[in-house]
Design goal:
Blueprint (H helix, E strand, L loop, with lengths): L2 E11 L2 E6 L2 E7 L1 H4 L13 E6 L5 E6 L5 E5 L17 E6 L3 E7 L7 H13 L4 E6 L6 H7 L1 H5 L3 E4 L8 H5 L6 E5 L6 H8 L25 E5 L3 E5 L44 H7 L5 H14 L1
Parallel strand pairs: 3-5, 8-9, 8-11, 9-10, 11-13
Antiparallel strand pairs: 1-2, 1-4, 2-3, 4-5, 6-7, 12-13
Length: about 300
């Protein structure tokens, strides 16, 4: 006799889904009626809560995907649907993970050098999806704690929680671990910044493959090949998915961007024009704050660069 249970998708690979249900892991496929739906987003992905039927042989079928509270997504790469007429000139949302509680953006202090423009983009995407963001400055042993704090001081000053870590001397690792229990977390960042090493340090039983740094271009080599949720102590899960190193904008308009910069958003109401681009308009409160040194030039330039990318 088949049984029915509610579970969490913790792995997605080639149309098969691993569902964590009542302390069991059940390999499932989507029910045919679900699989044939024509939607502009993924039907099921890691982080989704699902209702499944479990068969006598231990496999299952997903018969219902529960409503999502939030997602982390990107545009489906164009080469994935360029030969499909239905998708011509049409954006498709690729959901990387559903029901995210928090995003932890990991950047190394050195080797590779932190890309703050990328960090700003990640923070905007998290804000647009209503996902609380935390910044992890890793490899502080390479430059020293004082320089590490100075390098990321701007983000701390504008209100982001910054955790400073080193897997070499275990500094700050416990602080990062304390943020994970009972939540579905996303660790995202460029390759080679030490995400896998951090997780292995937090839980040595994980045995995740560690990204190497290419000696020729000093960039990390990505090792994740399919999306999965990794169990962390105390009912916590951390997403490990290849798409997280290429987060991009989805369903964000250029004129909305300033609302996702925490230090710029409060200034916008003071601009003389409601459609102010914060570049050339008279009586622009954002430009005025920039001139007075109240907002950083690097963050302001990130805003302008993102506008160009979306336009």
């Amino acid at each position: 006799m088949n049984k029915n249970c509610t579970g969490l998708i913790i792995k997605s690979q080639s149309g098969f889904f691993t569902v964590h249900c009542e302390q069991e892991r059940i390999e499932c496929r989507l029910r045919g009626q679900l699989n044939h739906k024509q939607l502009d987003t993924d039907l099921a992905t890691i982080g989704d809560k699902v209702i499944i039927d479990v068969f006598e042989d231990g496999t299952g079928i997903i018969k219902e995907v529960c409503e999502r509270n939030r997602v982390l997504s990107r545009r489906l790469p164009s080469n994935s649907y360029e030969n499909k007429p239905r998708y011509k000139n049409h954006e498709i949302q690729q959901v990387l993970i559903a029901n995210v509680d928090q995003a932890i953006f990991v950047f190394s202090c050195q080797d590779p050098t932190p890309n703050f423009r990328m960090l700003d983009r990640f923070l905007v995407i998290a804000a647009a999806n209503d996902i609380p963001a935390i910044i992890c400055a890793n490899k502080i042993d390479l430059i020293g704690a004082q320089k590490a704090v100075s390098g990321f001081e701007l983000y701390n000053d504008i209100g982001y929680h910054v955790v400073y870590t080193s897997t070499l001397n275990k500094q700050g690792v416990q602080d990062l671990k304390n943020l994970l229990p009972g939540k579905v977390s996303v660790l995202a960042g460029p390759s080679g910044v030490g995400k896998s090493t951090l997780l292995n340090t937090i839980n040595p039983n994980l045995g995740l493959r560690v990204n190497e740094i290419s000696q020729s271009n000093r960039k990390g080599r990505h090792t994740t090949v399919y999306p999965q949720l990794i169990p962390i102590d105390d009912k916590g899960w951390v997403a490990d998915t290849p798409g997280l190193r290429a987060l991009d904008f989805f369903d964000i308009e250029p004129e909305e961007l300033d609302a996702y910069f925490v230090e710029i958003a409060p200034l916008v109401a003071g601009c003389a024009f409601s459609n102010c681009t914060h570049t050339h308009e008279p009586s622009c409160a954002v430009v005025s704050a920039l001139i007075k040194g109240q907002i950083s030039e690097s963050r302001y330039n990130s805003l302008l660069q993102m506008r160009k990318q979306i336009l």
